[in-house]
Write a structure and sequence with these properties.
alpha+beta, 16-stranded antiparallel barrel, 31 helices, 16 strands
Amino acid sequence: MKLTREVLLKKHLISWILLLICQTASAVSGEDDYRQALSLNEQGRGKEALLILAELKNRFPEILRYQFDYAAVASSSGEHTAALGSVDARTEKEAPHYALEALFRSAVALADMPRAERLYGLLDDRFGAAAESGMGLVHLYLRLGHYPRALMLSAELLDRYPGHMGILDLRAYVLRHSGLLGEALLAYQEIQRLFPDNRDAPKAIGMILADLGSPQLAKSSLEGKDIRLASDEYLRLLKDQGVQRIRWSAGDPDVPSLRFRNADDAIAILRAARDEAITRAASHEMIGNIRGNLVLAYQLRQYCSEAIQEYERLVADGHEIPSEIRRAAASCYSSTGRYAEAERMFHQLVEETPDSYESWSGWIYALADLERFDEAEKACRELVAMLARTDHGIPAKAADYTSARLTQAMLAAYRNRYAEAQLRLDSLQADAPASLDTTEAIGILAAWRGQPRRAEEQFRIVLGEQPGRLESRLGLANAHLDQGDATLLRQIVGEQDDDGLARRSVRESRRRLELRDSYYIVGDATFGNDQDSVAGNRTREFDLKAYSKPFGDDHWRAFGRYRDLWSNPVASVTASNASAGLRYMAVDWTTEVEAGSNGYGRLETSHSLSDHWTTNLAIEKNTFFRQARAVESGITADRVDWSLRWRQDENLDVGGGYRLTDFDDNRRSEAYLSLSKGLYADFDRRLSAAIRIGGQRNSNPEVAYFSPERQAEISGTVAFEFRSWQDMATRKSSLWHRVWVTGGEVWQTGFSAHPMSSIGYGQDIALTDAFRLRWSIARTRYPFDGENASYYTGTIGFEGYF
């Protein structure tokens, strides 16, 4: 019994000692505070728990549990910086699983990618990382834009957890946002197969189809399914349908009924999308995207005013506008005559996208529209040099290079340097014989140079390859019109609907027909001194001719004519004549027959033998315009004129002619030969020189009017023409000036050689494309019967279509 009592006493003593030790240890290690912190954290009072744990880990740094728990509580409380700062890299290696996961979550939250990767590696090596941790790191990669890493890790996770819905969805998401839309589509289709009840996969499939450029297929895939699209998703799908129509429009045939079918659809869809976006108060970015594509659609349709309105709204709303849309807007500014704005925009685009052929080309033509041709040609040389260094084995690059060289040639043509343009086009055709654009340009240049047959030949080559090519069809028809036949041009213009008529080339061709189908009036007046200027005689001649509209299958015009002649005081004459006639127009032929008062009659015909040769023959009975003294004396005359002209091109023209005038008292024979040469030409000035050799012979020198038995003369003329003004918006109104100087020698029978000279100034004023006015004044010095006379003459003329 005593033994038992002793044993019990010892046990109580040991228990008391152990309890004392535990209480002492608890007081020393802060266990009570630790339990209080854990309790506070469980109650959701993490901030208070952190204060206690912070004090504990500072008081007892050797107890790692306080550091790990502090990190865990700080992470769950959103104090991620504090969590990561509580555990160093060495201590992380000893951290339990819960602490590592907490630290990993904080590293992800703070986008600390190096530490997140290190912690993920520790978790994987020590415990086998959970799927959620791997997904968290993938999201971090996506957030930081490290798509290759996101692709690699998501693929590893999918191999590790092949049936995991979250990982499958994340993998598809990564593929989609990495631009691998085809693989993303397959991933979402796999999700749809494995999880038929998943409602996100069908929507993602539809939107990816839209991203792949198949909004119609996307729409079909979503129809019949109970899928609710977000507002921006719905608008994007609608916008993508419009964008698809814009792409399809490039393949629309160039025929009236089909030319703009997709452009019209695009405009209708995008207008609806814009209005819907505004109604739904869609995002700023979405509205800007829709408006931008609407600019492209309007520009395709040549609705330039609407395109500019949408573009200026984008600018006003502060949108960042892609270069493609700004190019379209700049083209519209150019089409509406706002050339300065177009040039500024294209120049900025060239600086931003120096490798873009479209930007360079737009800038060059904008400079040409402003007639800043030196800058345009310099820019074009830079573009050609840049494209010459590209790989011409790539069809698109080769086409750009050909187009740039073609532009270079046409810039020379715009400056009236036709010979240089022809050389460039011939070289280009030799290098790219299959280029129909080059062949068409050669045809256009030939038409500008007054060579309709060569133009026709080139356009027929193009149409042999592409029968429906509208520009070449119009070029061919205009070449026919230049030769006198409007049938084909009427047919082509008549085929065009309102959309076709909006095209510039069609509008210009239609305008030519309108002018041809109008009444035509031409008038000329000459006044000043005449051959009797030595005695102080003055004369005035007036000739007015009015033509009807064409009739009789487009070949005939009727006309009326009025002329008068006045002279005073040496030869006192007042005379007038009224006549009427018919003009017949056929291919390469024009013939007029005229009859009037006092027995007047005229037959005149002109024939174009080729692009270089033309001839003219005129026969007059009772010629009205003759010397004042002859009219005063009642002398009548009949006249025959014949001329032949050879025109090499715009720079060289040779002509000759013969005239026989049979007066009642004299027969006069006259012949001449002339040569004119262009010395310099530019878009707004021209310099030329001419030489003329002429002579006459009269059967009776003893008549009342000046009639030397024989006379010969040789003269040379230098003329300079320049333009001082042009309506830049329409290009149909302009003011040209002409200054000329003539000098030469005259030989008359019975007299020594005498000098002759003339100096003059005139203007050619185009008020519209339908009315033109011209006038000139000159001072002439010329010998009559051995006596030099100096006199002034003036001319006024006009022609108009009404």
